């Protein structure tokens, strides 16, 4: 009897799982990675809906069990509403759409219907291409999803086309749309300003909209960063809970809309910011949106960050698989005041110091009354300053060769000072109102990159420097002004295209640079971290996180950027900001990213100099662990008075722990730092490195061997009670 009952129960279970297969098959589109499923379904009326996004479902047959509609009424009556994958304005959905089109007859509605879908293999993943078409107007949208299986990252974008007689006007053109139904949503945003980049703050989303956006045009991320985190059912936690991390690959105005609807469901809409940008799309041309890159983790944001890091190193960041150069920059040391001999001497110092490259910053160009001796003049005139550097760049390269270091150079090619030969010759190349008093940001204007002639000119700056001096080994590409005085002399009556065409113009130039000088590493800099997006990083090997190099502030800044970017992409320089802190603390903080120096070496004591040389050697030796290993954020500066991060090599044979004491309280209880990501079975020898000359480690665990299991469960007593101190520990498996 019992057995029969069991058989029935089993049969019942199987039936409930597979029954829907017998009913009419639903048209399903599935985008999957090793751990995630994004499932879409075509409704009876041919519209496309998201039916699932979350942890991978074990039985693909059960995608059929998902319904395209959700109950959309809070009063109990059955109102069916779907989560339309690319919702159009004017349809039965009352919330924020992905697309809004004004058709030739003035109608503003878009009802997209499923046409076809296909998949194809692309580097690292599978691309799903879904075609949709309006049933009344000849408007098509093609959705692209590239799923990176191993990294659990999805990159998605959309393409809009039409065959109406005249241009249609797009006033919404999102990259994608995602929906969630959870008990609560906690948004972490990253607000910024000069020297205060990526300030993390979290708030619970309530009914209605929250928008994170930028209207700055060129230095677009100056005040808000193009990325976010959403914690589901709880604020995003480092090691547990479900977390969405998303970022837009667009070096211009962006917007993320988070809208909680009447029944408590959340939609997330990443897009170019449509602000002042209704786009007139000509027939048979394609409007391609930027990529939205996202990952979902059910093991907290630490894992989500590692997903993005792994993806970026393999598939997005320029030269993600190549090592990076340490460098000595002269900006904070000399500012605009140098000459050939002074630079020659600095290059020799750089060699003796042990870095790979000398990087010449701002101030090397402009002549006569447009000499670049301060930030008032010279931008645009990329002719070497003959007074300061009579031998030109070739002489500097000769100095670098003699010294035995590589030579890198700063440019800010998209900008112009009104006090420049370029502006006198081509005032119409700058974005500026013809009929208003100009407003200057850092005494400069933004060149009009929508103008192909300007693009040629900007590309020509790099080309000329590289053709005349093929030994230039690196560019620091700066961008210090947002778009001000928003008028393009080139676009004339199409001013509404300026914000978009400007960014496309920048990409045209960068594409040419990458194509013609593929092995040229470049730093993306924007007065600090005003540019930090993954489309930009296709062309740049790294970015400058902030002009704020005070190591205390840097802890927060590096913690913030590490949520989205691998250490290899993040430049960190040791300077004399907050010189009250030791050189060891400053160097140890910079060492958790791509290490560089921007400091007068002559100002360092013998001891400090010796310490730095040793730290550079250590960093170079450990570069494969720090830059190519996996990062685990262990102790948050936002939650404690310390910070700790460890890196583990891919084979788990080596690890590095960075522990920082920022502002500990008196008699504060210090907990051991539990490492993560080690092999529990391996036995690791613990050695403190980066010690000041003559100092011995006071670490209890120094020189001892522990299992990975022990180090992850018990930890190392690496934190101290003293202000701004640091401990760097190398772990090597026996
Ligand atoms: C802003 C950058 O962030 C600095 O590092 C430096 O290059 C200056 N510009 C030079 O003007």
Describe the protein in words.
The structure is a single chain. The chain is α+β, with helices and mostly antiparallel strands and 734 residues long. 21% of the residues lie in helices and 30% in strands. The protein is built from 12 helices and 38 strands. The strands form 8 sheets. Strands 7, 8, 9, 10, 13, 14, 16, 17, 21 and 22 form a 10-stranded antiparallel beta sheet that branches. The chain starts with a helix and ends with a strand. The model is unreliable at 1-22 (pLDDT under 50). (2R,3S,4R,5S)-2-(hydroxymethyl)piperidine-3,4,5-triol is lined by residues 331, 361-362, 410, 478, 480, 525, 527-528, 544, 547.
List keywords for this structure.
734 residues, alpha+beta, eight-stranded parallel beta sheet, 12 helices, 38 strands, 30% strand, globular
């Amino acid at each position: 009897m019992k057995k029969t009952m069991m058989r029935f129960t089993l049969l019942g279970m199987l039936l409930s799982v597979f029954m829907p297969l017998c009913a009419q098959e639903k048209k399903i589109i599935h985008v999957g990675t090793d751990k995630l499923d994004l499932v879409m379904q075509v409704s009876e009326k041919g519209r496309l809906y998201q039916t699932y996004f979350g942890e991978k479902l074990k039985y693909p047959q059960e995608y059929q069990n998902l319904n395209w509609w959700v109950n959309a009424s809070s009063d109990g009556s059955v109102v069916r509403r779907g989560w339309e994958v690319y919702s159009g304005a004017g349809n039965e959905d009352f919330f924020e759409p992905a697309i809004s089109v004004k058709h030739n007859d003035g109608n503003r509605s878009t009802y997209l219907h499923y046409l076809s879908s296909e998949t194809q293999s692309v580097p690292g993943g599978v691309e799903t291409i879904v075609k949709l078409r309006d049933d009344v107007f000849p408007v098509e949208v093609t959705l692209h999803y590239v799923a990176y299986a191993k990294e659990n990252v999805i990159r998605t974008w959309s393409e809009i086309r039409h065959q109406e007689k005249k241009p249609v006007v797009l006033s919404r053109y999102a990259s994608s749309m995602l929906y969630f139904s959870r008990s609560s949503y906690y948004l972490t945003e990253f607000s910024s300003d000069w020297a205060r980049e990526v300030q993390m703050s979290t708030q619970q989303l309530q009914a209605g909209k929250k928008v994170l956006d930028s209207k700055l045009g060129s230095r677009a991320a100056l005040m808000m960063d193009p990325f976010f985190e959403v914690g589901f059912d709880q604020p995003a936690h480092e090691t547990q809970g479900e977390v969405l991390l998303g970022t837009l690959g667009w070096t211009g105005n962006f917007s993320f809309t988070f809208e909680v609807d009447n029944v408590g469901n959340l939609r997330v809409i990443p897009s170019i910011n449509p602000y002042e940008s209704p786009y007139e799309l000509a027939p048979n041309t394609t409007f391609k949106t930027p990529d939205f890159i996202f990952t979902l983790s059910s093991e907290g944001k630490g894992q989500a960050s590692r997903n993005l890091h792994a993806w970026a190193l393999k598939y997005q960041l320029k030269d993600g698989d190549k090592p990076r150069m340490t460098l000595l920059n002269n900006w904070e040391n000399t500012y605009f005041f140098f000459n050939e001999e002074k630079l020659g001497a600095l290059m020799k110092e750089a060699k003796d110091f042990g870095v790979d490259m000398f990087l010449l910053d701002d101030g090397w160009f402009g002549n006569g009354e447009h000499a670049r001796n301060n930030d008032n003049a010279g931008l645009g005139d990329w002719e070497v300053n003959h007074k300061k550097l009579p031998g030109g760049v070739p002489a500097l390269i000769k100095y670098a060769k003699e010294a035995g270091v590589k030579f890198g150079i700063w440019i800010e090619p998209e900008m112009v000072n009104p006090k420049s030969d370029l502006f006198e010759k081509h005032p119409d190349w700058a974005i500026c109102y013809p009929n208003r008093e100009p407003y200057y940001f850092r005494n400069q204007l933004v060149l009009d990159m929508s103008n192909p002639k300007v693009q040629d000119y900007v590309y020509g700056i790099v080309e000329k420097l590289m053709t005349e001096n093929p030994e230039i080994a690196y560019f620091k590409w700066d961008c210090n002004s947002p778009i001000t005085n928003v008028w393009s002399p080139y676009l004339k009556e199409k001013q509404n295209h300026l914000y978009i065409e400007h960014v496309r113009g920048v990409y045209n130039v960068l594409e040419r640079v990458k194509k013609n000088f593929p092995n040229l590493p470049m730093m993306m800099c924007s007065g600090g971290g005003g540019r930090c997006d993954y489309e930009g990083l296709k062309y740049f090997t790294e970015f400058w996180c902030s002009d704020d190099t005070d190591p205390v502030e840097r802890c927060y800044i590096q913690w913030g950027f590490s949520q989205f970017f691998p250490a290899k992409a993040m430049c960190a320089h040791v300077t004399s900001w907050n010189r009250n802190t030791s050189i060891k603390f400053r160097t140890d903080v910079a060492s958790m990213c791509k290490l560089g120096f921007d400091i007068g070496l002559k100002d360092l004591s013998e001891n400090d100099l010796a310490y730095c040389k040793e730290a550079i050697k250590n960093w170079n030796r450990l570069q494969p662990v720090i830059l190519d290993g996996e990062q685990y954020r262990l102790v948050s500066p936002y939650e404690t008075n310390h910070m700790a991060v460890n890196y583990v090599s891919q084979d788990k044979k080596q690890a590095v722990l960075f522990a920082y004491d920022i502002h500990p309280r008196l008699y504060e209880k210090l907990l051991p730092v539990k490492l993560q990501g080690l092999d529990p079975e391996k036995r690791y020898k613990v050695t403190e490195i980066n010690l000041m000359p003559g100092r011995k480690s006071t670490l209890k665990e120094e020189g001892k061997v522990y299992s990975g299991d022990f180090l992850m469960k018990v930890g190392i007593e690496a934190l101290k009670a003293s202000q701004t101190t640091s401990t760097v520990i190398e772990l090597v498996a026996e």
